[in-house]
Specification:
Number of strands: 0
Helix content: 40-55%
Shape: elongated
Largest sheet: none
Number of helices: 3
Radius of gyration: 15 Å
């Protein structure tokens, strides 16, 4: 709810409207239900991106992702876990 309603349909829309006339970058749409890399504002440890999680999920820090070989390596691990 926070990601879709507050961020995607609220903050992001207004920010991107301002980005049409100000020298700022547009914000991307976030969809996390299927997992994947997180991109957006702030450095790797800023906690500047709100995210709702579900029971049984697991989140990695940016340092752990890099230590595992980067996003490609983590995506490969996830594919293996799904049986692919």
């Amino acid at each position: 709810w926070v990601i879709d309603i507050v961020y995607n349909k609220g903050v992001r829309g207004r920010w991107n409207t301002a980005a049409k006339v100000l020298p700022i970058k547009k914000l991307p749409v976030f969809k996390f239900a299927r997992g994947g890399a997180v991109h957006g504002p702030g450095p790797a440890t800023s906690d500047s991106i709100p995210a709702r999680r579900s029971r049984g999920e697991h989140v990695w820090t940016a340092r752990e992702v890099q230590g595992a070989g980067g996003h490609g390596a983590v995506e490969n691990l996830r594919a293996q876990a799904r049986g692919g």
